[in-house]
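Researcher: Next sequence.
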Amino acid sequence: MTKDIVNSALSKVLYPGFTKDIVTFGFVNSIEINGKDVSFNVDITSSAPEVAQQITDDATKELKAVGAGNVVVNIKAPKMPEAQKPKNKNIAPHIKNFLMVSSGKGGVGKSTTSVNIAIALAAQGKKVGLLDADIYGPNIPRMMGIEDQKPEVTGNKVLPMKAYGV
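Model: Next structure:
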């Protein structure tokens, strides 16, 4: 077993989701050979465990095919990003529940859905506020029949407008 044989075998291991192999990407380093036993490091860019597992499985398969005995693949991956911890600062402690309607695409009915939810909750006697954060063309005022009203500002606060009993 030589480093050339190992590199040749590992050049058949494609990085998941790409058409290039781990050798071409330059991810393989610290190859150690002891008889037929092979160990090496692979520095990957993904923190996904399934990527590391697939590289390990594929590398082991390719090396065994060329006569390797024990194969040890040491994957070095970036740490999985941790979820941000919520801040203890509640900026609206008087509001019990928030419901957000969002999408990465326009024209899918976010405004219509929001208005329907607000009206349904108001019909159940709930106190409801509706904020349209669409900077390109807010539709909520038109849907609620208040497009001619101007918001009232007191200090640095915008006061809510009343619409259809909501």
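Model: The chain has a mean pLDDT of 87. The longest strand covers residues 28-34.
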